[in-house]
Amino acid sequence: MGDEPGQPVDAPWWRSAVIYQIYPRSFADSDGDGIGDLPGIRARLPYLRELGVDAVWISPFYPSPMADAGYDVSDYRDVEPIFGTLADADALLTEAHALGLKVIVDLVPNHTSDEHEWFRAALDAPPGSPERARYMFRDGRGEHGEIPPNDWISNFGGAAWTRAADGQWYLHLFDSKQPDLDWTNPEVVAEFESILRFWLDRGIDGFRIDVAHGLAKDPEMPDLEGNWATGGPAVEGHPHWDRDEVHEVYRGWRRVTDAYAGDRVFVGEVWVQTPEQLARYLRGDELHTAFNFTYLLAGWDAKSLRTAIDDSIDALSAVGAPATWVLSNHDVVRHVTRYGGGDLGNHRARAATLLTLALPGGAYVYQGEELGLPEVVDLPPELRQDPAFGRTQGEDGFRDGCRVPIPWSGEAPPFGFGPGSGQPWLPQPADWAALTVEKQQGDPASMLALYRSALELRRDRPELGDGTMSWIDTDGELLAFRRDPGFVCVVNVGGEPAPPPDAVRDGALLLSSDPLEPDGRLPGATSAWYAV
Ligand code: NOJ
């Protein structure tokens, strides 16, 4: 961390951007079928403009049998009819751009749907055929090939291999309806570069890359022997996570985007153990940014947060990449609930918002966090659609709890999610009546009002966004840092009121996540921004 102020005025937008994640099934439904869609998103773009974000990342909206809510793509160059048409996607892009919002689409390169034409052709073709060579087909072990080729397990539970009718097995690190592609095959490489161009030519501003750490597999396919966790961050030498060969893929992609005008961006979903491993994906000729899961996973205590922040900035600045700060997404328990739920979780989430938006770099907002939505923990099993729920007999796979449709207005479900009274694909809790956009809009103490104020200040204050930070000495559960030339963020992570550091004694309070004490102390779980 150096101490030069702010970012250069001509720095690319993504170094500072606040990017709002839209999970299309659950954002806004235009036609009343209970599932969100692209026209629904279009209608709500002014809301996002008013919220004050810079860009949207939209989770997959491609044709898909929806075995994994669209992360099982059957055609990378079209739009799933439930969500709309390619013309809707074009209109969304045009309208977003007119409002000054960038648009990032989700790219799923590790696997296709089993209903993709390539996989259908692979099943119809014999072992050893070029059609099968696009995927990871192998003969089984055992006398009749009845034992899977190795002991790898699916991220969603159960074996990572499924047997085709003729006896060969295919690899799927996720659901059996998500066969893994073979990235050593030049045809796969060429196809994805062509898919990138398809969307770049339509004018999109970037790609979020699904499972970016998973594309390369050890050709020897050694057994894991139960030693290495599947879902979480990878360890060095793992046969299918974070292997060196993936970097060549991203160098090729970077050559594609670099040939386009405008600052097109890649953001990697890279689950690895350390910020140093992450930084390798962000070298100058690879991806531009990646989600910072170290920060998302940090506990709510000053030491963990500070360590996560320092380690991230140190590792990423070494390769010249900006950090990104993320608290929630469609795969993790919403942070209000993670931070303790109820009032406590709510205050901590408010404090975390001001911390997140004051840190140097970009930030992500997952739809609904600006409303303070909690995780829905009591969805009935028969309504759950997370494939991991089925594959683990209900022991895992609770991601539907953070995917419940957004409450926009009114006193009862569907809370304006769709027209009329038709119910959404997952039921909304009745007490979300208090959390609708409509309710919060008129309430200056609401979570929505906090996000709007913070995002407005973030746009106005030259210190915020990309740049550097320096810690101010504090004790106990207080964190404080300066963004030069004249901004300080103080976070009371603890439970008791604490005075801000001397550095802000003569400063002016710009915003606090909750009201400060009359003597200026920060209540527990409160953050404040000061001009100094
Ligand atoms: C990560 C995505 O965020 C998640 O939702 C999906 O299930 C897996 N990748 C598999 O594509």
Description of the molecule:
The protein has three domains: 15-112 and 186-441, TIM Barrel, CATH 3.20.20.80; 113-180, Oligo-1,6-glucosidase, domain 2 (Alpha-Beta Complex), CATH 3.90.400; 469-531, Sandwich (Immunoglobulin-like). The protein is 26% helix and 12% strand. It contains 13 helices and 16 strands. An eight-stranded parallel sheet has the order 9-8-7-3-2-1-11-10. The chain has a five-stranded antiparallel sheet with strand order 12-13-14-16-15, with helices on one face. Strands 4-6-5 form a three-stranded antiparallel sheet, with no helix packed on it. The longest helix has 17 residues, at 186-202. The structure holds 1-deoxynojirimycin. 1-deoxynojirimycin binds next to loops. InterPro entries: GH, GH13_cat_dom, O16G_dom_2. One of its GO terms (molecular function) is hydrolase activity. Keywords: Hydrolase.
Number of distinct helices: 13
The distinct bound ligands, ions and cofactors come out as: 1-deoxynojirimycin
CATH class of the largest domain equals Alpha Beta
Largest sheet: 8 strands, parallel
Percentage of helical residues? 25-40%
Q: Calculate the mean pLDDT score and round it.
A: 95
- The CATH architecture assignment of the largest domain turns out to be Alpha-Beta Barrel
Structurally, the number of domains stands at 3
Summary tags:
five-stranded antiparallel beta sheet, alpha/beta, globular, 532 residues, Oligo-1,6-glucosidase, domain 2, Immunoglobulin-like, 3 domains, 13 helices
